[in-house]
Amino acid sequence: MSVTATALAPGRPARATVRWSRRAVGALAFAALIELVSRTGLADREFLPPATEIVARMGTLALDPAFRAHALTSLLAWAVGLGLAAVAAVPLGLLLGSVPVVDAATRSVVEFLRPIPSVALIPLVALVIGTGLQLRISLVVYASLWPILYNTMYGLRGVDPLAKESLRSYGFGPLSVLLRVSLPSSAPFITTGVRLAAGIALILTVSTEIVAGRGEGMGVFIYFAGIAVPARMTDILAGVCWVGLFGVAVNALLVAFERRAFRWHHARLGEQT
């Protein structure tokens, strides 16, 4: 690239500002559409309150200690479940991706368990371990395990064989090759798996709370707002929006971490494209 083209090319901060500005405009346009549909009577305000009322209720709930207790309970289940899934899935993925015999022996079991919806396991898990925080954590672990596991295995398949052979030629054993070459090369894929699992964990946390319908949690708050007479639709949508904002924030943080920690990986992808 010439000096002139480099000078004229927008910097990374400028591109990020443009990207986030477009997203903000899209969100504001969507909120304005909801406001218009509700205010003009195109939709019943009982089922679709104006966006301004939803946002105002979100602010009120943020100051409510009871609502914050619901949010912290869900956050705890989400964080613990996601963390346990990562701790279990990464070593398991390294094992299956590095030892073909073990991968072949366990493939049928893994392929049988992976498609089972976690929500379908709620009655069974509730009978075995109860309906408290342990229920949510267990289902979050189960659902979050698979994207991290498969991304770890996929990352191992993309490791440069020449780099591994170079280390072996200097007398390094399989474990050293795994820790010095395979794991660092797979780290961007593992991080992507964690990012995907974070969204799945959030969905499972809230949906499990809604189905269980007891204790504390964002799903419990939404559930009781829905069964109230009349239904508190503003509370339901405000709770849903808070969950969505948390998901957006977590995803943005993980994407930023990926780009900073693995710049070499993104640079290589840019060269390939």
UniProtKB/TrEMBL annotation:
Main location: membrane
Subcellular compartments: Cell membrane
One Pfam family, short name: BPD_transp_1
GO biological process: transmembrane transport
Positions of transmembrane segments: 20-38, 75-96, 116-133, 177-204, 211-230, 236-257
Keywords of the record: Cell membrane, Membrane, Transmembrane, Transmembrane helix, Transport
Topological category with respect to the lipid bilayer: Multi-pass membrane protein
GO cellular component: plasma membrane
ABC transmembrane type-1 domain location: 71-254
Keyword set includes Ion transport: no
Family according to the record: Belongs to the binding-protein-dependent transport system permease family.
Identification of the protein by name: NitT/TauT family transport system permease protein
